[in-house]
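Data availability (excerpt). The following record was deposited with the supplementary files.
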Amino acid sequence: MTYKTDMSADTKAVVFTELEKAVIQTIEMLPPGPSEVQVRTTMSTISTGTEGWIYRNLFTWASTPFPCVPGYQRAGRIVAIGPDVQGWHVGERVMAVGGVWEGTIRSFWGAHLASANTLVAHLFRIPDGVDDVDASGAVVAQVGYNAAQRVTMNDGGWALVYGDGIIGQCAVQAARARGFKVILVGHHPERLDLGARHGADFVINNHHETVVAAVHRCTGSKTVAAVLDSVQGETVQREYLPLLERGRGQIVYCGFSPERTWADMALLQQNEITTHFVAGWTRLRMEATLALMAADKIRVRPLITHQVPFHRAPEMYDLMLRKSGPFLGITLDWTGADA
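Predicted structure:
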């Protein structure tokens, strides 16, 4: 394959053109500038939670800048190097956190496209043995890793993961890698089945069982060491709070809520519950997550229920919006796209 490295080129991209509307469009991509490389995408994985909020313009950290290219995780190969970049080479397999370019169609954070420039600060080498699907979900996997790492105790006790979405599933795997015995709580039977096959010692459907009683039955204990909460709401907080020992229990909030108030802080204080909040990524955490992928301790591929050609992206966002069928992870395949 011959790569264009000295001129601009058109590239296919997923574009949110307006509220709850996604299309495939062509945008211009210039050669990489200083501190940038250009990455030809093979796979990009949708962050179904965050991108679902962005699709509906409900992501309260920043208003959706229509029209824009969403997404913040993709895998591919370097096809061009910026003028001052050292230590990176054409042909290397990399994981890129988004993309950067100038134009009327903005990057937010710009991962779902066939080719784009990326700051080297947002670039990670994919270890041997890690496939592109796993690597393309490394940011959401890192959220689960970050959540599990925040728990300060680790005596082989029980951790409760609340929420059976992809972040909750990755938190299950990360907690298991730390030596915890893990219970996954959710209400989607097909997702709970995946959790049981990929890291959870027990799963609880909280639409069918009382969580406290189910945990007591599964563990023989009245308390768990920590709750990793990817749902974040007062109702679920009250549901699991009796399982945390006063003065020792810990909660790690690892989801997103559009509400200003979604937890009862008075209850946390009354019970002296240590509380952690996680958001975003760091290089150390990303590299640790990729290393766990290489060790086969965190996997995203088994959580992908829909691996589809990129041109089906609008259909996938409609599925997420309308919940017209079961889904968990969604990966877009860009190998058939024109560069």
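Summary of structural features: The first helix runs from residue 48 to 55.
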